[in-house]
Amino acid sequence: AARGDGGGQGGAPNRHIAEQNSISTHGHMMVLRELLDASPGGVLVGTRLDEAFDIVMEHRADREPIVRSSVILTMASLSRYDELGLYVGPCLNHLLHGIKHNRRAGAGPG
Predict the structure, then answer these.
(1) Residue 3 — very low, low, confident or very high, per pLDDT cuts 50/70/90?
(2) Which domain holds residue 36?
């Protein structure tokens, strides 16, 4: 087996890699959020803003809670940049869907 691949034993190394990727994605999202919050309407415009939106939306269905959390936080920052209203709708739809899903999942009998 190649070094670092775990030799295919039990999948634990793959889980470790997935956790590392989730932490890395979370970190990148938080930096993106900081950049968005630093100067709304300034630094990210046009293609770069579209690219940021695409990345955030690409990760919205991630299974890792840390990534889902960073997506939600970044959506709020992204929506402040949105002069044309292109991002607010999809971000709001995702957030409302998540809130409804969590409410249904947490609702007990009667």
Answers:
(1) very low
(2) 11-106
